[in-house]
């Protein structure tokens, strides 16, 4: 099953006001799409501020979604694009395949948790190049290790 994770543009400090508004609208659309696909408990599609939903946190001034915790939801679906993500927890789902290379652009990512899935292949070398990454958990998968 092909799936893609969350990707990020890391030029927040360089965005014009109109680009910032466009990016925020992109986050809102992505979060609503995830909600339609998953029906995440505690999320609503009735126009409430998504930055106040459980399992999700936004940055200063509700600028971008920075933390998304979708652990334990038995995921089998694709994700939309979110900008400014710092924490992603998709542990204990039904994700399969390799960790996609699209994630190498997540330079702001500080926590990335993929444990308890059916991921395989090798852990990509670029994970070690994510300079802000402090927590990476990937146990209980089917990764190959070459020593």
Gyration radius (Cα, Å) is 15 Å
* The named CATH superfamily: Ribonuclease Inhibitor
Shape: globular
CATH class designation: Alpha Beta
Distance between the termini: 28 Å
Question: What's the number of helices?
Answer: 1
Sheet bearing the most strands, described?
5 strands, mixed
Oligomer: single chain
Q: Strand order, main sheet: write it out.
A: 1-2-3-5-7
Q: Which percent range fits the helix content?
A: 10-25%
Q: Would you tell me the overall average pLDDT? A: 75
The appropriate CATH architecture is Alpha-Beta Horseshoe
| Beta strands, count | 8
The count of domains is 1
Low-confidence stretches: 1-17
Can you walk through the features of this model?
15% of the residues lie in helices and 17% in strands. The chain is an alpha/beta fold. It has a five-stranded mixed sheet, with no helix packed on it. A three-stranded parallel sheet has the order 4-6-8, with no helix packed on it. The chain is globular. The two termini are 28 Å apart.
